[in-house]
């Protein structure tokens, strides 16, 4: 049996398990609550693994692993925030209140929780529309990651991989709902966990151990590409010069933007409402923390160390091997440097990472369009609620496919950071203050969400060069790629073009929420008592 046939057979066995779990989810789905919230009776291990597998995707492993090959160990700060903020703060402080308030208000989605908390159809509809419009960009980043992996590993043309993988996902997400998504997530998360342990063990073994590997990477600092050195990079273990453009990109966009943005991710927050009690969330902190450590921690360490491995074997650093496309670094590393048997298994792990995240993104995009925007925001009555959400998922998948076809190279990490930042600016103040502060008003929430969204979009279109240059609106109106370029070179204003939009937009959103709430009429005590009934 040839290696190619082994890969195909292994992939088919894997897909058989996925479709069985999808079928199991479909069989157990009897109502809209089952379809959107898995019946609120999910096992804690399944919930935690589903949360983690949804959180960590090919975007984190291939996209950010490739970014670690460029920027080195400073990305490990993101792993710290992923565990402390994304798991501990999210589950222990926000998760319990989200679950309890969700039960009290009978909320089925993240936008619906916000809409019911503030007694506002506009808030639910606006939240659903923002999620539906922009989650395909994030989903496309994940889709690109697995399609690049299939292109490099199996030689499947990129466009064929893009469409074929999407069709497989569409079948079980549309039919099985959230139960099918979470069952498959838990299995896929387990596969990912085992593969990442093998990956990091092999990297350190092949380089002579922990200390030796890190010393070799440190000694390679003179090989850092000239373009990165000009941007402020000193080395893969040394990091970047404080305040330099790349230092700002690493710490404000990758570490802060993604690390904080996770708290307002609708596809993650909805999982808090799928368990029966706080006990399941407490147990989820342990499962989730260990899982995230071995996912992002391993991806970032191996991504950085791939420079040593490639240089010893081929005389080139990682980005040179990948011909300038950082999204190809991890796939090339697996294909060229790891044993062939591992390539087969790692491909399954990437299948798992992509499918677990994409299925959740498609599901939340579809329910945001169907239930939140169309049914509740516009006040349209659907004859069949499940079919309405299935149609929404279908539209979300189609838009994702289009983005996946046309987004440029090396886009995975920036696209992920974009969606995380946008969600934080638009939703985080209304979400957090809505859970903890009875003085937070409907007007405060509306002003905060609209203001945070507007501030974030303005910054993306006119200040943050990475996006404003690609979109071109700023250039067409003002003749420069970023308004920050009009400031004196090297000044604080000039450096704003590398500062993440959320550094500005999130504080603006919080300030608007507090000030507007203090100046407007308080919400009805009876309604607040209902919201706080289980808190």
Automatic annotation (TrEMBL):
Key words of the record: Cell membrane, Ion transport, Membrane, Sodium, Sodium transport, Symport, Transmembrane, Transmembrane helix, Transport
GO biological process: proline transport
GO terms, molecular function: L-proline transmembrane transporter activity; proline:sodium symporter activity
Localisation: Cell membrane
Residue ranges of the TM segments: 6-23, 44-69, 75-94, 126-150, 156-174, 186-207, 246-264, 285-305, 341-365, 386-406, 412-436, 443-462, 503-520
PANTHER family in alphabetical order: SODIUM/PROLINE SYMPORTER-RELATED (PTHR48086), SODIUM_PROLINE SYMPORTER (PTHR48086:SF3)
The protein's name in its UniProt record: SSS sodium solute transporter superfamily
Species of the source: Desulfarculus baarsii (strain ATCC 33931 / DSM 2075 / LMG 7858 / VKM B-1802 / 2st14)
């Amino acid at each position: 049996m040839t290696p190619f046939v082994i890969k195909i057979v292994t992939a088919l066995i894997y897909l058989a398990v996925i479709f069985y779990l999808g079928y199991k989810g479909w069989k157990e789905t009897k109502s809209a609550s089952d379809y959107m919230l898995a019946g609120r009776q999910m096992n804690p291990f399944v919930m935690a693994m589903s949360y983690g597998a949804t959180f960590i995707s090919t975007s984190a492993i291939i996209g950010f692993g490739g970014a670690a090959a460029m920027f080195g160990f400073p990305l490990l700060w993101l792993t710290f925030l992923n565990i402390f903020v994304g798991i501990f703060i999210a589950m222990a402080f926000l998760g319990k209140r989200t679950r309890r308030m969700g039960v009290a208000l009978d909320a089925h989605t993240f936008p619906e929780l916000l809409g019911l908390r503030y007694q506002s159809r506009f808030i639910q509809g606006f939240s659903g529309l923002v999620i539906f419009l922009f989650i395909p960009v994030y989903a496309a980043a994940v889709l690109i990651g697995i399609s690049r992996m299939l292109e490099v590993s199996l030689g499947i043309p990129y466009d064929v991989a893009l469409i074929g993988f999407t069709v497989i996902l569409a079948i079980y997400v549309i039919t099985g709902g959230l139960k099918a998504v979470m069952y498959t997530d838990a299995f896929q998360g387990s596969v990912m966990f085992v593969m990442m342990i093998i990956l990091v063990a092999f990297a350190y073994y092949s380089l002579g151990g922990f200390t030796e590997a890190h010393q070799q990477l440190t000694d390679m600092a003179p090989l850092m590409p000239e373009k990165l050195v000009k941007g402020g990079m000193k080395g893969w273990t040394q990091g970047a010069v404080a305040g330099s453009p790349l230092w700002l990109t690493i710490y404000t966009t990758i570490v802060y933007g993604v690390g904080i943005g996770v708290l307002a991710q609708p596809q993650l927050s909805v999982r808090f409402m799928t368990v029966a009690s706080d006990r399941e969330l407490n147990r989820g902190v342990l499962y989730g923390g260990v899982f995230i450590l071995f996912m992002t921690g391993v991806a970032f360490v191996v991504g950085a160390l791939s420079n040593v491995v490639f240089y010893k074997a081929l005389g080139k650093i990682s980005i040179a091997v990948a011909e300038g496309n950082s999204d190809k670094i991890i796939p090339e590393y697996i294909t060229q440097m790891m044993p062939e048997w591992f390539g087969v298994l790692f491909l399954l792990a990437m299948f798992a990472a992509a499918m677990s995240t994409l299925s959740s993104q498609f599901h939340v995009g579809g329910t945001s369009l169907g239930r939140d925007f169309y049914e509740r925001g516009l006040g349209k009555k659907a004859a069949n609620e499940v079919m309405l959400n299935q149609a929404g998922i279908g539209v979300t998948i189609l838009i994702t496919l289009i983005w996946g076809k046309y987004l440029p190279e090396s886009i995975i990490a920036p696209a992920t950071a974009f969606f995380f930042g946008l969600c934080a600016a638009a939703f985080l103040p209304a979400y957090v203050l809505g859970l903890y502060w009875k003085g937070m008003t409907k007007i405060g929430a509306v002003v905060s969400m609209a203001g945070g969204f507007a501030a974030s979009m303005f910054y993306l279109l006119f200040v943050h060069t990475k996006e404003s240059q690609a979109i071109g609106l700023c250039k067409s109106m003002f003749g420069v790629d970023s308004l920050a370029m009009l400031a004196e070179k090297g000044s604080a204003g000039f450096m704003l073009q590398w500062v993440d939009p959320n550094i500005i937009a999130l504080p603006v959103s919080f300030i608007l929420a507090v000030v507007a709430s203090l100046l407007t009429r308080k919400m009805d005590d009876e309604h607040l008592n209902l919201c706080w009934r289980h808190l």
